[in-house]
Amino acid sequence: MLKYTTAGESHGKAILAILEGMPAGLKIDKGKIDLDLKRRQGGYGRGKRMDIERDRVEILSGIRKDVTLGSPIALSIENKDYKIEELSSVTCPRPGHADLAGALKYDTKDMRNILERASARETVGRVVAGAICKILLDEFGIEIVSHVIGIGKIKVETNGLYYSKIKPLAEKSELRCVDKAAERKMIDEIDEAGEKGDTLGGVFEIAILGVPVGLGSFMQADLRLDGRLAQGLMSIQSVKAVEIGNGLAAAKSFGSDVHDAIYFDKKKSLPAGRQGFYRKTNNAGGIEGGLTNGEPIILRAFVKPISTLMTPMASVNVITKKQEKAATERSDICVVPAAGVVGEAVAAFEIARVIREKFAGDTLLDMKCSYNCYLSRVKKY
Ligand code: EPS
Fold this sequence. Notes:
Blueprint lengths: L2 E5 L6 E7 L9 H12 L7 H4 L4 E5 L1 E2 L2 E2 L4 E6 L20 H8 L5 H7 L4 H17 L3 E9 L2 E2 L7 H10 L7 H16 L6 E8 L15 H10 L4 E6 L2 H4 L4 H4 L3 E3 L12 E3 L7 E2 L2 E2 L4 E7 L10 E3 L6 E3 L10 H23 L5 H16 L2
Antiparallel strand pairs: 1-2, 2-6, 3-6, 4-5, 7-8, 7-9, 9-15, 10-15, 11-12, 13-14, 16-17
Helix pairs in contact: 1-5, 1-11, 3-4, 5-11, 8-11
């Protein structure tokens, strides 16, 4: 089974990730992992920490001569801002952060002990594990695209742009947004929030292209792919809601307006395993009954404004129990573009996990044999 775990504190020596369950024989280009780390560091609205860090992965195990061995892959990213032992204690919890609930749970009056691990710095570990999953998915023609579709009140209309067009446009934009006019307004909103000592959230969208039909299952609750993807995205720091396909609108619509009617044309050239069946709409976001239907998987994650405010909110000193302002720390104004890159990583992991479950094998070649066998079976349907 594919799994990953991370370790490390925000200002500790390093963030670590262990990815277990990858097949042997997968060629790993370290440059691709570092590129995702760089993408995660970027985005308008990031704080001064990103001027200090130069996130690069160090591969500690599981890969020899750029090829996976099938053994656990251990990865390390050094924190240049390593100073955990010198940092002052935090006694006024920030509303919205893990500070207060964490301090009560782990019985500490110094919330530094909580925030160091709760920090979104941990996501460098997810990004490196996800980058390796992306390399595996690439072998099966699966691609993951993300872009920002909202910051604060500013929303983006993609006007039916194909996802293949979205990727290059998003990569060129500082906010990972395809709409130049909206991007300018978003930058103004972020600047305005920054001037007020405030923060801003937003929405990012992920499209997963080239997925074969039949990944995930309705056989058990924990095998449903929509549930797994939602859990993965919800677990990203600051994400407060997840939408699959047009899920929010669907709740307010008639069934006949929501479900994607089914058509058949044998001559239609269709991706992996759909064999002539096609849809004219994709309101389901590529998942029906907990499994892929062969359409692109469309996910949206709603990110709250981050909770370290330079104009702090009311809080209580946990030692004196007196009303005080919440702690302030160097932080970001807006992390939505970075969260989108993390979203790609967790989505890549979840898709790689179902691919490994369905096309198990010790080597990449074994997996491909099983994959091709499945596709030829579906083709004969
Ligand atoms: C982050 C590193 C952190 C913050 C941010 C994300 O660095 P520092 O706390 O040293 O400024 O920039 O963390 C949070 C938003 C948070 O709530 O903890 C990173 O590497 O992504």
